[in-house]
Design goal:
This protein has 183 residues and is mainly α. The chain contains eleven helices and no strands. It starts with 12 loop residues before the first helix and ends with a helix.
């Protein structure tokens, strides 16, 4: 997929407005990537979350497209805004980006957005809470997931890269968004 800086299409402000915005000590994309907002007792959680929900409700589809057309920080942030706002009109776009796997770090945000939509159409892309077992062919022992993890020495035997742990992390993100947004 082609990459284009939002400035080139008249949306240069979206990076500062949504991606590098600081509602705490670090830029929004770093807070989303780190999962800090999911940790109990984080002192900036309420302000950060309120601004995230407000932005998810007010960002335009064109602004989201501008973010999705750029680099990983922008895509990660856009996917979170899409997921929090349950903008299901972006289902196909998010699915395409997930399957293209062009950047590190943004894939988890795509999974979060699809899990937030939570329909059978999303299960076609992502095996969610629907009991479909569509992902079994990837997550079975010695399946594609294990082959990928084992091919990367720094991930081998790392407890955070099991399918169960990745699903737990996505569930935490959805519970977080459900608890604050009530949508």
């Amino acid at each position: 997929m082609p990459f284009q800086h939002p400035e080139e299409i008249g949306y240069g402000y979206v990076i500062e407005r949504y991606v590098t915005r600081k509602d705490s000590e670090h830029a929004r994309y770093l807070q989303l990537k780190s999962g800090r907002v999911l940790r109990p007792g984080w002192p900036h959680a309420e302000r950060f979350t309120r601004h995230l929900i407000d932005d998810a409700a007010t960002i335009t589809d064109a602004e989201l497209e501008a973010l999705l057309g750029y680099e990983w920080r922008s895509r990660l942030t856009a996917a979170w805004l899409i997921g929090v706002g349950r903008r299901a009109t972006f289902r196909e776009r998010i699915g395409d980006l997930l399957l293209a796997s062009e950047f590190c770090f943004s894939g988890g945000a795509y999974c979060f957005a699809l899990a937030r939509f939570g329909t059978h159409a999303d299960a076609e892309i992502l095996d969610a809470h629907l009991g479909t077992h569509r992902a079994d062919r990837f997550t079975e022992p010695d399946g594609l997931w294990d082959q990928w993890v084992n091919a990367l020495a720094h991930l081998r035997n790392h407890p955070g890269y099991t399918p169960a742990e990745q699903r737990r992390w996505t569930d935490l993100q959805c519970d977080f968004a459900d608890g604050w947004s009530h949508t």
